[in-house]
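One chain shown below:
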Amino acid sequence: MSFAEFGGPDVLRVIEAEEPRPGPGRIRVAVRAAGVNPVDWRIREGQKLSARPVELPSGVGLDAAGVVDEIGEGVEGVAVGDHVFGKGIDTYAEYAVLTAWAPMPEGLTFEEAAGYPSVTETALRVLRECEVRPGQTLLVSGASGGVGSAVLQIARDRGVTVIGTAGPANQDYLRGLGALATTYGEGWTERVRRLGRVDAALDLAGSGVIRDLVELTGDPRKVVSIADLGAPGLGVRFSGTAGSVPDALAEAAALVARGKLRIPVERTYPLTGAAAAHIDSRAGHARGRRVIVP
């Protein structure tokens, strides 16, 4: 999957490309599934998300689960044929190079495992950055998507009470993950207040709620956003730089093994359906993850 110009989902094209080769410290996998993340369509639209410019034409995708079929120089602890999940380059493809990986957690399908790398790294990072502690209450705006699903479960495992906002159709889903659930929309801040005091807050949807989150916590330093580029203008941290992906993958695998983390796959798409996947991702209202199956 590739795009030669920035724009809407119609710029995506399935192309025949030369198979990638893993350089030193990297591996190549035969991709069985690739996770769909908001950063994928943000890059495709040409949003400035990092100091490194995107070179056109560009591939798409950062997350994948698959079967190792080639190993770069200096790589140890993995063998051809191993099932792994991780982050890499241009993962909406039949073959992709991974820069960080871990053995696929036992009991997960390829489709499920492909949905974990970016969302678990992001969830662990923002929980660390908002400095919420056991016994405190965390408010999560936009809680039913992949990152929200991970945040709710990890926070609850750490002894944090979680209030989550989502659409009416996802209220039972949030409660099933251990959250106190309420809907967004008119009067939502009062509904949150009735559920309890808020010690820290996360904006995962970019729905224009930063001022409300600051009001509810009483301190912009207690709010972190991964979706609103205007957050720093209100004194709120925008978290967009990944931490240690290998550490996050290892922690995610441990949580899965303990039965403390499970992120459902809401929908799978063929490679030719990548444009539809981006449209759905941009619209939000997810319950778990969306995944490309080449």
The chain is about 30% helix and 25% strand. The mean pLDDT is 95. The radius of gyration is 19 Å.
